[in-house]
Amino acid sequence: MSEAVWSRYRSNTARHLMGVARDFENRMLGRLAESDGYPDLRPSLGPVLALVAQRPRPLRALAGALSISPQAVSQLVSVCEKAGYAARRADPSDGRSRVIALTEHGARLIADATRQLRLLSAEYAERIGDDSMRRFEEAATRLLHALSDTPDVLPIGGRAASIGALPLLSVDAQRTLMGDTAARGHAGLKMSHAQVLPLIGPEGARVAALARVQGISRQAVSATARELEGMGYLRREPDPRDRRGVVFHLSEAGETLIRDSVLALDALDERYAAAIGARRFAALQRGAEKLYESLGLEREIFDGTPREGEPLERLAERLRRELGSDVARRLAALLARPTNPTAAEAALTRP
């Protein structure tokens, strides 16, 4: 592919919005799990709970808002039910129908998420400046309202401008780009494919790196990569750094998909600018790009350099998930203990 295509593919408003949204969700979920006692949250539940937090909704309404199948929404709702965040109840306006509503536990989660949202917003503002952050949040919230088919679809945090708009905007961007590329001959793509395809750089990508960037398991990334390989968009090669591993590259069909996706980016920008005006769209672009760059998002994929602190952050998140908060804290205390100099010297000199 030409350098111009790679450059546009590497840096664009959709990528910046989706990257910052992913960072926001990962940070939010990590904090809610560790400090607020919600260990069973996952990124896929965020948009569902954000919608249900505004008002109870039928499954089909949720599916339409999220652009996924009713079956997929039903699975997400079942996870929310098992965790105690939501329940299926009779629709008060139609006793024959059922709606998804928050439980008391779910309402507490939303309250705690709103508190963490304000803290995260302040931390992001330290990176790009209060004024840029305020304009970015206002533009993002306005855009979400303008794009919504139902006027009461609001992010966590209420009607005020909020960075909580980002997860739902990310869903809209992925859905729009997918629809546009499907119209250009790439049928069969799914939302889950966005966890892999946009992160295949010029030198390919390793499963471990994709999993770190996305904050999901290697197994999930591997399954999606194999599916895309079966569709002809990816090809695998032995990893020159690890003979047991593989590197996924774009195939010829994958490069065609990227070229078509780049064409779709212009249409997406035009749609967003028409929805909120050129001035607000420019503020959205600047804020998203500043945050994306300051956070070092996806640098590991495209520049070959790990995000500052990324391996340890991801390791800590994984250990918290696998060990539980109590055991993770005990492990942290053990690691913080001073090393016995005598024992250390003995270990170093031991044959």
Explain the overall architecture.
The protein has 351 residues and is mainly alpha-helical. The protein has a domain at 3-32 and 121-315: Orthogonal Bundle (Arc Repressor Mutant, subunit A). Helix content is 64%, strand content 9%. The chain has 16 helices and four strands. It has helices at residues 3-10, 13-34, 45-54, 59-66, 70-83, 104-128, 130-147, 166-183, 207-214, 218-230, 252-276, 278-294, 299-302, 310-323, 325-336, 341-349, and strands at residues 86-91, 94-102, 234-239, 242-250. The strands form two sheets. Strands 1-2 form a two-stranded antiparallel ribbon. It has a two-stranded antiparallel sheet with strand order 3-4. Strand 1 and strand 2 form a beta hairpin. It is globular, with a radius of gyration of 22 Å. Mean pLDDT is 83; it is low at 150-154, 305-310 and 341-351.
According to DSSP, the number of beta strands is: 4
| Strand line-up of the largest beta sheet | 1-2
Percent range for helical residues?
Answer: 55-70%
Q: Helical element count?
A: 16
Structural class: mainly alpha
Which regions contain 5 or more consecutive residues with pLDDT less than 50? 150-154, 305-310, 341-351
Order of helices and strands: HHHHHEEHHHHHEEHHHHHH
Percent strand equals 5-15%
Assigned CATH architecture of the domain at 3-32 and 121-315: Orthogonal Bundle
Look up the CATH topology of the domain at 3-32 and 121-315: Arc Repressor Mutant, subunit A
What is the highest CATH level, the class of the domain at 3-32 and 121-315? Answer: Mainly Alpha
Radius of gyration: 22 Å
Oligomer: single chain
From the spread of the alpha carbons, the general shape counts as: globular
Major beta-sheet overview: 2 strands, antiparallel
Looking at CATH, the homologous superfamily of the domain at 3-32 and 121-315 is Winged helix-like DNA-binding domain superfamily/Winged helix DNA-binding domain
